[in-house]
Amino acid sequence: MRRKMLYVVRHAKAEDYGMGKRDFDRDLVEKGIARANHIAKKLLVKIENETERTLVISSTANRAAQTAKIFCNILGYPEERIQWEPTFYEAHQLFLLKKINDVPSLYDTVLIFGHNPSVSDFVDYVSDHIINLSTSEVACLQLEDNIDYSSLSANTAFLQAIITEK
């Protein structure tokens, strides 16, 4: 079995929360779009571009969905294959884990796009590394030998890197 990789992405910088728009509907700002493009290009260098064995799952909140589309465009992943997950918005880390546990073994690479604190808490739980992902950052997790997504649980992944703007 090939080693499985999991990339956890926090959405890019979005509009400030205000009275005129629901939090769920906030869009990315120019700075967020630019940073997402930059970090997605850095991720492209790191991953194998084998989209048939890749799955992308994203929150449907505007800022996460827009971030996922930016990354998929750069990675060459067809936007129509994104699995939209409305429940990723305000999801608990264990809910994210449950969704990853449902990923079929035919996938070698999974990218998830979501929100803090759940994405950072999720990385901490599966890798035992306390992190706080900033906007657009990517936590690169490698599952332990002979661990499939269905077996992912506490401390079964290794945090290889965090891809940042710097």
Task: Give a quick summary of the entry.
This protein is α/β, with parallel strands linked by helices and 166 residues long. Helices cover 30% and strands 20% of the residues.
Kindly describe this structure.
- InterPro entries: His_Pase_superF_clade-1 (IPR013078), His_PPase_superfam (IPR029033).
- It holds the Pfam family His_Phos_1.
- This is Phosphohistidine phosphatase.
- By secondary structure, the chain is an alpha/beta fold.
- The chain has helices at 30-46, 62-75, 93-101, 118-127; strands at residues 5-10, 54-59, 83-85, 109-114, 138-143, 157-163.
- It has one domain: Phosphoglycerate mutase-like (Rossmann fold).
- Helix 3 (93-101) packs across helix 4 (118-127).
- It has a 6-stranded mixed beta sheet, sandwiched between helices.
- The chain is 30% helix and 20% strand.
Please give the structural blueprint:
Blueprint: E1 5-10, H1 30-46, E2 54-59, H2 62-75, E3 83-85, H3 93-101, E4 109-114, H4 118-127, E5 138-143, E6 157-163
Parallel strand pairs: 1-4, 2-3, 2-4
Antiparallel strand pairs: 1-5, 5-6
